Every structure is written in C-alpha cells, then in structure tokens.
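Sequence in, structure out. First:
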Amino acid sequence: EDELSRSSHSNPGKSLVNGIKTNPASNSPKSSLPVPMGPPVYVDLAYIPNHCSGKNTDPEFFKRVRASYYVVSGNDAANGEPSRAVLDSLLEGKSQWGENLQVTLIPTHDTEVTREWYQQTHEKQQELNIMVLASSSTVVMQDESFPACKIEF
C-alpha cells in the first residue's frame, strides 16, 4: 500500500497493476504485460465475459475462474456470440482442474452454436462432470416474457 501511495503521489499518471507500474492511458484489453500466475479463484456463479465472445475468453479464463455455474448469455450469431471456441475452452480449461467438481452451464438463449456444441461434445461433458441446464421456464412481466431458470445455493 505504501508503494502504491508513493507511486500515485509522485507519478500521478502511473499506477500499479498486478504489482507492475503502468500508464493507465496505454492500458488496453490486449495488454502485452504478462499476467502473473496465481491460484485459481473458486466462485459459485460466473458470467462468461462479453456474451461468450471469443474476443476476451480463452482456456486460461476457465483454468483460473472455477465456477459451479457459468452463464452463457450470447445470442448474436453475426458477432460470434456465443462462440464455439469459448465453449470448447470450457472443456479444455476444466480438464486441467485436477478435481472433478460439478459444473453447470446455463445458456440464456437457445442457439444453434450451443445446441451443436452440446450434441458434439456430450461425452466429454459427462467425463468432465459438466451439465448443461436447459430450462423451459418463462417469466412473464407486463407485456414482456423471456426464458429463465432458477438457481439455488
């Protein structure tokens, strides 16, 4: 904290990211700075970033963020959402956990990509203890209705 305070006061344009001094103006999502390895993070629920787009999520995400439930919200085939590569990354990342924890994948939309991935990788999903939750529940609110599922912890 002392180092962070000193660097902030002496260099107002610089900050620490993962213990490395950076210039916030030059930071970008595809930064060339190496991401330090650390222990995985365990969470109950994780939302797969950017509507399950391949732009921001790779096997490393699933190696490091270990969730009981992953939400896949992509519904834009023109933009590659959800991305088959991201769904495959879940399989690759989970295969390296070294423990067989139950994982539930929750797609918020019924898409062709998700259906094909489910059918083509079903055996691998079973081997890795991954369940895809399909819900036929619908929430109706005033003039709007949408698919939904209930998750209890």
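Second:
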Amino acid sequence: SGIDFEIIIIDDGSPDGTQEIAEQLEKIYGSDKILLRPRPRKLGLGTAYIHGMKHATGNFIVIMDADLSHHVSLYFTYCGKQKEGNFDIVSGTRYKGSGGVHGWDLRRKLISRGANFLTQVLLRPGASDLTGSFRLYRKEVLQKLMEKCVSKGYVFQMEMIVRARQLGYTIGEVPISFVDRVYGESKLGGNEIVSFLKGLLTLFATT
C-alpha cells in the first residue's frame, strides 16, 4: 500500500479464539506489524482505546471491530476522506448516503435507530451515526478526547463525537455497510442498553 502501518489487537479475554488467531498473524507478518496487547478480562471499550493508544506510533489511528463487520478496504476511503477535508476525525455512517446494515434482526435495528434518534434530538451532535465504532482519528485529537471522556461501554462512542463537537474538531463521514458478525454473538444486552440511556441523559445534562 505504500503506507507505514501497524495493527494493534486488543483482546479482553474473549472466548472466541481472537488471541490465538492474532498470535498466528504475528508469526506470519512480524511483531513490528502485528502488535498483540491482550487484557485478562472485559474492562470496557474506553479503556481498550487507552490501552491501544499507548502502543500506537503513527500520526493517525483507525479503530475498527475485529469481527469482520467492518470491511478493511474502507481504510483507504477513510484516508482519502481525511485528506480531502483535512478532518480531525473521519467516522463511518450507516445512516447516510449508501450506508446500511446487513444481518441484524428487527430488534437490533430498532435499538440502533432509536439510540441515534434520541441522541440527535437531545444532543444535536452534527454527525449522523454516533454509535458506530469504525473511525479514524488524528492521534493528538484522540488523546485529547480520551482525557475529556468519562463514559464506558457503548456510550463511549457517542461521547467521543459530542466532545469533539464541543472542542471544535472537524468531522467527516464515510457511508459504510455494516455486516453483522458470522461467528460469535454480540455483547449488546440489557445492561448495555440501560447504561447507554443513563449516559445519554448525563451528556444531555452536562453538555
């Protein structure tokens, strides 16, 4: 690709064999390209960002799920979008242009749509998809946002965009097609939904 890169894999004690696959990739491509940084248990998405960022050496950090729901070819689209507008953040959107979701049942679609609708009404964040996790950040911008954000779990993604708007960072969007994982199960459950609603109300009251 002509791009100097590294892939940092954060695994929180997942039972799906992620760490074993990552170790195989590390042997094939070398520890300078594949950096496996596991943790003993699930500690939250926000802390995973911090953990990975400590090991990142580049000027930009692209964050994506490792369950193949995000197509890696979009990486180049993100890079092009960033250069096009010199954006601080490039975020994938399932709810704009050619974006969409494949493989979700009606319940999951309603939860995602409902979460975004409530967020748009209450917070007016200036972005169409706040719960997605496929994003590109300038490293220094990500560091600054991490200092400001207090949420954990799925609320964290939403707070990152809200805080970015508050701090005046520029955000570009790329339509993406999100494909639900083929293997394993989503970690989204009742506790995460309740936490999201609490976090949404907290942001509404404090921003």
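Remark: The two ends are 41 Å apart (CA to CA).
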